[in-house]
Specification:
The chain is of the alpha/beta class. 47% of the residues lie in helices and 9% in strands.
Length: 482
């Protein structure tokens, strides 16, 4: 009782600060990195009646525009994310944003549905966070956010002075949500000092993306760095949570999508041996790998046994887990295969597919802010009864094919209907199919040929050979299945 009475003045002070709007930690400063935001994302056209994505941004984005003054009957949706949102390796014409706009038009033709594709190739969440400020100024009715795969593409260092990964840093970040804590530090000058230290210690990033795979060293630039990976995950959680909080503070609803990824049909991009592996164990590992490769698939259990022992000897080698997953799959051990595919993905030294920790960070940010979430991995998996992972609906390691994009668009319409943003007319499915077919027929052979060419260039890029040079071997020395 006495402890509770003693806390009453502190509780009262906290409530007064919240009512007065005082003691709020600044959300404008990203304590992890500093991104050059001097160049606007949207610019007015010559007539001054439409905003468009700035020409300087079109290396990473596709052209998109919207009216400067939104019509009274317009429902405006911004789709924000990376190349999956953009529709790569094709273009927005076959991305879920286009199928969504057409589906909504079929569901309720009385509304002027305006869906703007703001998908940026190689754009990570901390770059999307900068763009979000301009999106929120564009009078959106809904934002669809799909991000997570591009977080390891750019090199940056993380300072640990004011925002450390240790206990002190964790306690400081947690206490920053308490207004009384912030107010006391402001009064003593410590809060400003914290912010100056954080700002000075941040990595400075240019206005546009400069990926590690574009530096000329290919996959060699990626090495195992667990501490850096943990910092990246923390940064993702921070960035997404701040984006969701900012949108909510502006009264704009957000629908978050967990991005799809290819688990079973994409080997890890780079493998490294387990740290500290002895020369004896390494020799035994290589012997087991050769034995597995020499074992025919008609004797899948024996092949599995070789790879199981190899994985025990070298547990952090991504490639051995992937091929053990393939072997389990061939042997009909579905659950075991799924576990190995996930392990391979999480141990990938070049994580061009979001590992489990990124998905957990995205989900946690959504839960903490009360943001609705659609898991497109489960969505695509449920669409194909013959494919437990939905990988048949992906063109490569992360990008859905056209049918995959249509399924995602349908799920967004379903959610919007459940939230009463749209009331679907009777026989809307028929109208939607007709609209989709008409749009598809309008795309010529050149469109699809260009998409296939981009897919090939993307394949070279993800293998660290953007100029078409020799492949380093994506399976990390583990023989491909035969």
């Amino acid at each position: 009782m006495s402890i509770g009475l003693g806390l009453l003045p502190l509780i009262a002070a906290e409530l007064l600060l919240r009512v007065a709007g005082k003691g709020k930690a600044s959300e404008a400063l990203d304590p992890f990195v500093s991104v050059d935001a001097s160049s606007p994302f949207f610019v007015l056209n010559e007539t001054g009646d439409r905003y468009a994505i700035a020409p300087s941004r079109l290396r990473f984005f596709q052209p998109a525009s919207f009216a400067r003054i939104k019509g009274a009957n317009t429902f405006r949706i911004f789709c924000l994310g990376g190349s999956t949102v953009q529709g790569r390796p094709f273009a927005p014409e076959t991305a879920f944003s286009t199928w969504l706009e057409l589906a909504l038009g079929a569901a309720d033709p009385t509304v002027d549905w305006d869906v703007i594709n703001c998908g940026g190739a190689s754009y990570a969440t901390y770059r999307l966070a900068v763009i979000l400020h301009e999106v929120l100024d564009a009078d959106p009715d809904l934002i669809v956010l799909c991000t997570g795969h591009n977080e390891f593409l750019e090199q940056r260092t993380y300072g640990h002075l004011a925002l450390g990964s240790g206990v002190a840093g964790t306690l400081h970040r947690a206490a920053s949500h308490v207004r009384l804590y912030v107010a006391v530090r402001e009064a003593t000058g410590r809060w400003g000092q914290d912010r100056r230290i954080a700002a000075d210690d941040r990595a400075d990033l240019p206005g546009e993306v400069n990926t590690l795979l574009d530096l000329g060293r290919g996959l060699d630039v990626y090495v195992r760095d667990d501490a850096w990976r943990d910092d990246v995950v923390a940064h993702v959680h921070y960035s997404v949570r701040q984006m969701l909080k900012l949108a909510r503070s502006r009264g704009v609803p957000v629908l978050a999508l967990l991005p799809p990824r290819n688990v079973s049909r994409c080997p890890p991009f780079k493998s490294e041996h387990t740290p500290g592996l002895s020369s004896v164990d390494l020799a035994r590992f290589e012997e087991l790998v050769r034995s597995a490769s020499d074992t025919p698939w008609t004797d899948a259990p024996r092949r599995c046994a070789f790879l199981e022992e190899a994985a025990r000897l070298n547990p952090r080698h991504a490639g051995v887990h992937y091929h053990l997953g393939v072997a389990y799959q061939k042997a009909g051990l579905v659950a075991e295969g799924r576990d190995q595919f996930e392990r391979a993905l999480n141990e990938d030294i070049c994580p061009l597919r979001a590992p489990a920790a990124i998905y957990a960070a995205l989900r946690r940010a959504a839960e903490e802010t009360g943001t609705p979430l659609i898991d497109t991995r489960r969505l695509l998996a449920s669409a194909d009864p013959d494919d437990l992972w939905g990988d048949s609906l992906l063109l490569d390691h992360v990008h859905p094919n056209m049918r995959g994009h249509q399924i995602i668009a349908d799920s967004i319409v379903d959610w919007m209907a459940s939230e009463q943003y749209v009331t679907r007319a009777s026989e809307w499915e028929q109208a939607k199919s007709q609209s989709w077919n008409t749009h598809l027929a309008s795309l010529d052979a050149v469109y699809f040929r260009r998409g296939e060419e981009r897919a090939e260039r993307l394949r070279f890029w993800t293998q660290g050979r953007a100029l078409g040079t020799a492949s380093p071997g994506v399976a990390g020395g583990i023989p491909a299945s035969h």
